[in-house]
Amino acid sequence: MTDDNRFEPDAVTIPVGETVVWRTVGYAPHTVTAYEDELPPGAAYFSSGGFTNEAAARDGASGGGGVLDRGEEYTYTFDKPGTYTYYCIPHEQAGMTGTITVEPTAEFGQRGA
Ligand SMILES: [Cu+2]
Q: Which CATH superfamily is domain 11-110 in?
């Protein structure tokens, strides 16, 4: 997460079960906050600070909760396939959003074939 208010890269494709690490590399603080309405079916909510829903994440961020300062990281493991969209609370209006596409493993994908 950069001082240009971007997730770099802002679109990532991973296999199911993979862990993603976000790190603030500039001086501006950021959050990683999932769009709750856009989660794949059955997927858990995720956000820096460990909030369990988007409203709590937004409330928490106003008090500094889940805000990642320079060098700080947030780590999350995606265990359900699908497309996850997320944003940075302070910089959503600046377009700081990202997408994680989680693909089923080959074994999983062949199950219905
Ligand atoms: Cu930000």
A: Cupredoxins -  blue copper proteins (2.60.40.420)
